[in-house]
TrEMBL record:
This is Cytochrome P450. Signal peptide: none annotated. GO terms for molecular function: heme binding; iron ion binding; monooxygenase activity; oxidoreductase activity, acting on paired donors, with incorporation or reduction of molecular oxygen. Its cofactor is heme. Heme binds at C393. Pfam families: p450. Belongs to the cytochrome P450 family. Transmembrane segments: none annotated. It comes from Komarekiella delphini-convector SJRDD-AB1. Keywords: Heme, Iron, Metal-binding, Monooxygenase, Oxidoreductase. The keyword Cytoplasm does not apply.
Amino acid sequence: MKLLNGPKTPVILQLLRWITSPMPYMEACAKRYGDIFALRLYKKSLPLVMVSNPQALQQILTNDTKEFAAPGDLNLLFEPLLGKRSVITISGAEHQRQRQLLMPPFHGERMRSYSQIIIDITEKVISQYQIDQPFNVRSATQAITLRVMMQAVFGLDEGPRAEKLQQFLADLLEKGSSRLNVALLYLPALQRDFGPINLWGKQMRRQQEADQLIYEEIRERREQNLSGTDILSLLMAARDEAGQPMTDEELRDELMTLLVAGHETTATAIAWALYWIHKLPSVRQKLLQELDRLGDELDPNAIFKLPYLNAVCSETLRIYPVAMLTFPRVVTTPVTLGGYELEPGTPVIGSIYLTHQREDLYPEPKQFKPERFLERQFSPYEYLPFGGGARRCIGLAFAQLEMKLALAKILSSVELELVDNGEVRPQRRGLVTGPDRPIQMVIKSQRQVKPRILQKSTV
Ligand code: HEM
């Protein structure tokens, strides 16, 4: 039996490197120790086993195996923001039930009804930018995805409460993604309110303000007996086996989870896609040809099925996956993984980033090449931007739809250019990743041949 390898540096140094530069650290470890290795981030717990071997990933993530569980209490890092009753922080049968409640709006007809919302909001946001005025792409895409999520989750886009909540959430996530705030998440001993100058205290107060608005919205819906087709209405109408509705705390935690998990990730993905499309002229040209071929009848259904657009989105999520990692799993019974024996209680995590950087799967992995996805198919354990198994991303189809429609709408409306052609690299942004500097772009002109997007959603 092989001995599990990993860095021998003191625990605190491993944790610091993990907080400040997780991707270079993972790459350095994989180079030295292979595609299964162990990091020691905390003194008292077992080492964290990091996996980027597709067979081992399959063993971990396949649902029917009883060797690994995906308990929510391993996701404590998310608890300060998402709460104790979020789908991300709960476990076992309760987790399964809650997933089933949350999934219907992200499937089939219900999800398709968001097509028009996505297109309209993208148009509104883009029209706010002036020709020749540089703007930060991530701010623009974040404005789009936040408004889309507000609509999908609350049925709210405009109005004072929606605007206030959008502002709070944008603020909360912006401040929360600083390295210092991430360090606070990893070091719970510092999560105390020491008064008005205290970082943690400030973050918690911002959050309380956002919570208050969410609770107000829930109360108002109850009092006025309002219902709609949005996710909040659906969750308020749901009853468990005992006929009980969700409590306000449960509702708040799920709404916050969807807002947070759903908008920042997709905003970053669309921003990266715009970066690559405009950095590589041949990619942009092929994409425009494909979009223009749709001609006047450019409808959401057709956009969703475009092969090159699909390949561009897939490659965007391969090269710099917004989520570097799956949520951790834990060994439940003695198990052999890739030749290593693991004892019960060992935390195991899938490194999406390292898997997507494997040379044997993706030759020249640092090059952006959408063609990879036209030339071959990858298994769900070779390409996994949305994770897999019991905690696979609930918003997968929604995120793909939003990426494709927003990109198609932007590219067919305006001629964009990068302000400078320098390299942008990924870095930690809170618990996910993002560009290491602002990606500045500028609108050069409105597009002349503007394909018409059908008003009726038919995806
Ligand atoms: C490009 C965009 C997105 C990416 C890259 C992404 C990625 C991921 C990943 C890697 C996981 C963990 C999967 C695992 O551990 O196996 C996850 C979970 C999750 N995602 Fe996403 N996601 C995206 C967009 C969204 C959207 C739009 C929503 C909701 C509207 C969403 C909601 C969730 C939820 C609720 C979970 C937790 C599921 C659970 O614990 O059972 N995500 N996502």
